[in-house]
Amino acid sequence: MNNEIHRIGVLTCGGDAPGMNAAVRAVVRTALGRGMECIGIRRGWNGLINSDFVRMDTSKVSHIIDKGGTILYTARSEEFMHPEGRQKAVATCKLLGLEGIVAIGGDGTFRGALELSRLGIPVVGIPATIDNDISCSKYTIGFDTACNTAIECIDRLRDTMQSHERCSVVEVMGRHAGYLALYVGIAVGATAVLIPEREIDFEQDVVEKIRQARLAGNTHYMVVVAEGSGSAFEISKRIHEAVGIDPRVTVLGHIQRGGSPSARDRETASRMGYAAVNAIAEGRTNCVIGTNEGHLVEIPIEEALSMTKSIQMERYEVLEALSNRGTCFCSSDFL
Ligand code: F6P
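A: This is the predicted complex of the input protein with 6-O-phosphono-beta-D-fructofuranose.
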């Protein structure tokens, strides 16, 4: 029995990510195992503002480790951005007797968590976003599943692009970050990848790549575009103007956010949820549970928010080295 902390809350906030449920499950089970009560706060920070909650027991988190989305629902709360909204949230914490909150989400969630901690509510953050763009953590829950989903979709696209000898321009998520685009681009052997972290030279980065692919014998091309580096439709138009081919555009969109979490996301989420509750129980709060070289680390929220993470450009070099180096699979192989 834990004598210090009796009751904690858990919430998911911001864009959902596969593995959030596994994290919720781990938080609830760890809390119960340590003799604490656990209250699920629904719809992110809005749930704290509106007293929208559910008492969690083990049955509530049974059979959710394999489910995408979040059983607690999620939202981006406008009201929580304002002091009045945060005061309402604090009032709910006091009314329910919540002595700590585990907040699962991205940067926006952690900014909210910092504000709440400044009002005296202890918080621990768990990074979850398919964008993998949380500076204090090498890995964020959901990224691996989203990569696998995008790869599966692009593999299917490649089949039809190959048959029709076409160019595909695929837009993947990532408003400010190109992790998804770059990892997926390497994994599908893309002709070209555009990411927001790298200034685009359209002639070199796209047109010349397509030309090299054609010269190497390819008759279909796969261009992967991160959402934050421009519209796939615009890029398609420019390709048409430059080389006369007529690309097909696919925006993968929210399909990348759903689906059963991968082994990596389930395992990471479970470890992070366990670590978050232990941190609260042992008095180490107002921090984010991040990963570093596979190990979990606790980073003070304020420091976490001031950190920067840059994409490893070696990965871009790998992509360039491996693309367009020879004839890829094409129908003529069978003729
Ligand atoms: O933050 C994750 C993310 O999926 C981004 O990649 C994307 O730009 C954004 O959320 C989309 O947000 P919404 O679901 O609100 O359209």
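Confidence is low (pLDDT under 50) at residues 327-335. Residues 143-164 form the longest helix (22 residues).
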